[in-house]
Amino acid sequence: MGKLNPKQVENLVEAGTYEDGDGLRLEVKASGSKSWTFRYQLGGRRREMGLGKFPTVPLKLARQLAADARKLLATGADPLATRDAERAATREVEHQTAARQVSFQMLATDYQAAHGASWSEKWRKGWLRKLELYAFPIIGKLPADAIQTEHVLKVLRPIWATKTRTADEVRGQIEQILDAAKARRLREGDNPARWRGHLDNLLSKAEKKKARQRQHFPAMDWRGIPKLMVDLSKSSRRDAVAARLLILTGARSHMIRFAEWSEFDLEAAVWSLPAERMKMRKPFDIPLAQEVVEMLHGMERTEASPYLFPGQGKSGVMHANAIRNLLHGLGHDDITRHGFRSSFRDWANERTHYPREVCELALAHDERDQTEAAYSRSDFLDKRRALMADWANYATTPPSSKVVQADFKRT
Fold first, then answer.
1. pTM of the model
2. What is residue 95's three-state secondary structure?
3. So what's the pLDDT on residue 333?
4. pLDDT (tens digit, 9 = 90+) per residue, 248-278?
5. Does residue 408 fall inside a structural domain?
6. Taking the CB of residue 329, how many other CB atoms lie within 10 A of it?
7. Sequence-separated contacts (24+) of 124-130 with Cβ below 8 Å
8. What is the tally of structural domains in the chain?
């Protein structure tokens, strides 16, 4: 029989601890609040387990909860750990139930909302439109944990041979969305939309390779780069500086537009791009030639913006067509921003002896297969630094001062 009675428990107002017996006690705070605790020993250690507040938990229920805890103790179990485990299991069931209510289409919308602020309006609409056309009709209503390889193949196979590039873009979108779902604990296991070591075994690699080869960007002949750099260096406008940075780093135009000062370590001469800014969703370091470091040191910073090239639009950065318009103004209607990557690659092929993998990685193209990547994890930063230094030296040397040079000998 306990020491306390219901009326006594109700009337207690003086702060203190009141024992009911067998480890059950009532604690009264100075504020007047009352709560139940159960004290016990296990393995020589004293522990205390909260049973709830009075009057939500009346005396009778508190005694029953204490009795249940003592039964667990008699079996050698820890009542507190058992309760925590039961609560965790309940939360997990609730989480899984809630996760099943979140469809792939909802996840895609969430992903666009989280990342789309840095996208152009055209890209944002196109990104969602591809999913609406090809993915949502098949997997749009499925929860993330229900999507398996067969579902992804059902999306991709009808368009893989005829619209391979679009299909691969959709595959990449599905992979990104499911990765985000996994980060939110809405699914577990491997990503069924991953390419290497998975879908590359189920879909034609040849079709993907042909699709890439079909996309050609008009590019300036590498021999014309030094003359263009001279023209660009005559202007201190941000679009001209952005164009020079684009050429000297081999970066993609969107990487330049959204470049932030925090990504640059000018002392170490490295531009570190986070995974979310890279096409392959992997962080990437770009070594900066001395010419690039000096150019960046000479730039004025806008205190109100984190970007190198701020703008007035919704994105906060310079317009997507700023560099293109600049090139057109210089009489280069026949080339594209992306084409400078081809100019660099052609120069590397014809004028250097750097290994192919180093040249490709300079453009953030890691063409090593899964097995190669497992054994060779180097990012070739030192070799890429030498390559980009040679490229910058070539590109920034005025044509009139050039002499016949031997090829760059690098291994």
1. 0.48
2. helix
3. 73
4. 999 988 899 999 999 999 999 999 999 888 8
5. no
6. 10
7. 127/173, 130/166, 130/169, 130/170, 130/173
8. 3
